[in-house]
Amino acid sequence: MEHIERLIAKDLLSIRAVFFRPEEPFTWASGIKSPVYCDNRLTLTSVNVRNDVENALAETIKREYPDVEVLMGTSTAGIAHAAIVGHIMGLPMGYVRSGSKDHGRQNQIEGRLEKGQKVVVVEDLISTGGSVIEVVNVLREAGAEVLGVVSIFTYGMKKGLERLAAANVKNVSLSNFDVIAQVAAEENYIKAEDIDRLIAFRNNPSDESWIGGNK
Length: 215
Known about the structure:
- By secondary structure, the protein is α/β, with parallel strands linked by helices.
- The chain has seven helices and ten strands.
């Protein structure tokens, strides 16, 4: 697993799907200043990285959720990954909308899902966990047995971990914030002394004291 965590970390950094900028923080929609920008959609446009990611997701699902019957992607970022991994594994897939359609059959779950089927949710990024838990709840209400979640990257934020635990949702990520920060320092994307600042952000995103911390 450590090999996969580092491989995916290197891949994400190489295409700037995960991009650290501790000296010029990004501002999230919530107003929180962040030293990291994540756009795992970029994995789809890099053939080599896409192959690494999708094969690693497939192997993770086989290892962690061997009884899986259906893959369900989160809307919108998880849809393509669920489709590709479903093709690799020979499994049916669908996806869950953020809300029900206001026309047609007014579906929120797209694709065939039978009550009692064992489902794994495919997500690209886990931060506070709220959106993926909503997807799990929709699937549970539809009668599915949700075995857990696979994701490409997780921050490992306390709020997210607590939410997932409270909702009884297992998540397995290919890589995580700590590993990517370490690899980023090793490969000179950031300075080694920036790691503590990055971890301080991860541990308490609302505390901005990490900004300018190594000056």
